[in-house]
Amino acid sequence: MVSARPVYRPPLAPKSHRLPAKVYWRRRAIALLGAITLVVVGYLGISLAFALHNPSYGVSYSARAAEWGRQHGVGGLVTWIETEYYKLNPPKVGGKPPGNSFGSGTTKVSIPAGVHHLAEPAPLISPAAHPLPGEGVWHVAGRETATGVPTMYEAFVRPNAVNTSYVVGVAWMDPTLLKAQLYSGSFIPGKGPFAYSAPITAKNSENLVAAFNAGFRMQDANGGYYTGGRMILPLRNGAASVVIWRDGTMTMGMWGRDIKMNNQIASVRQNLDLIVDHGAAVPGLASQNSVKWGKTLGGTFNVWRSGLGVTKSGAIIYVGGPSLSISDLANVLVRAGAVRGMELDINTDWVQFSAFTGALNTPINGGNGTCNASNATCLLSSMNGPPSRYFATWWSRDFFTMSLRAGETTSALATTTTSASG
Q: Average pLDDT in the 75-84 region?
């Protein structure tokens, strides 16, 4: 008889729920990457938020975001965005500026015989095809010497014959009456502390005549930096260089050709290559050469730019304003008499020139945060940054000042004859 009982089968081993090891490693890696991403995104977000509320990063939020981006490895993206913006928003063509755009005030001063100074600048011929009334006329600006000799003149012209509704400012400074000083910042060039750094002190403001922006961030300047007996960054032969001698005289030229290091040099600030040489614009300015003319926008876009030049007599020329290509900037410098010239910083937040007035040997400040304060005015009222930035503890970029020499703050006449050739 066949048994109906089921055949005995041993119980199955309990099923394992453990996944392969590689799955667990994958999960751990994903969790770790997620945590790192959260930390990085959180840090960048907090960093960006601080940057957007940091006035040293610029006046506008867009400038602050751009500076933050360049500091955090996305400078190429920032430059691309700026390039596309300027392609879509070119300067206006044609038109005329407002009638009060070319300055006002004293144009001629009677100077006592026997007072040492450079001859006043020659009339500035406008790059526009048909000059307007008052265009290119020099006006006395800033503090004068105790004997009433102007130390600085300002004039205003249109940048070219196409964008004729814009106006750029030109300042002419006499280094026989003025001494220069380079102020170094915690951001540009960094590696402080420095004997001269923002804010300008009350003592150093007593005979201050002008303050103006320096050049690009050092990682974009293609040059070096020397001040206070320290080589902050190595100086490059061939670089356009602003040089201040120990006696306070400022000049500029090609490093290694026009000027070489010696014990009479107090400061050297390099920025790109010369754009004016031998009294003419250098060849190739219309080309997109990021090495010579800067990674940021090159030289072909008409944007806010600034530049510095030196005349045959030794006078210092500053040019700053809107709708300037690098060729336009060189052209205005040449028209103002520069035999050598260079670009300084660009874009609206960084182009800034301030003139200062007030009684001699008396402290002043940067005013009320506008371009038209009682003792401090911008070269152009449309400049974004007010003069007060140079008197603020948060200002972290380098800049230059011009102040009356010690012998020009008292009424005793100098015995040197007037110089027209320096």
A: 74
Alpha-carbon span 5 to 3, nearest angstrom: 6
Q: What is the pTM of this model?
A: 0.87
Domain chopping of the chain, boundaries? 21-88, 139-408
How many helices, marked H, and strands, marked E, lie in the chain? 6, 18
- Residue 42 clears pLDDT 80, i.e. is over it: no
Compute, in degrees rounded to 10, the torsion defined by CA atoms 89, 91, 96, 98. Answer: 70
Alpha helices, DSSP H, located in 336-368: none
First to last CA, the chain: 136
Which amino acid type is present at position 321?
A: G
Taking only the tens place, the pLDDT of each residue in 190-220 is 999 999 999 999 999 999 999 999 999 999 9
Q: Report DSSP state, residue 50.
A: H
CB 115 within 8 A of CB 414: yes
Place of tokens 């050709």: 257
**Contacts of 154 by beta carbon, 8 Å cutoff, 6+ apart:** 103, 138, 139, 141, 169, 170, 171, 172, 355, 379
Alpha helices in 189-344 (DSSP H): 218-221, 290-293, 326-335
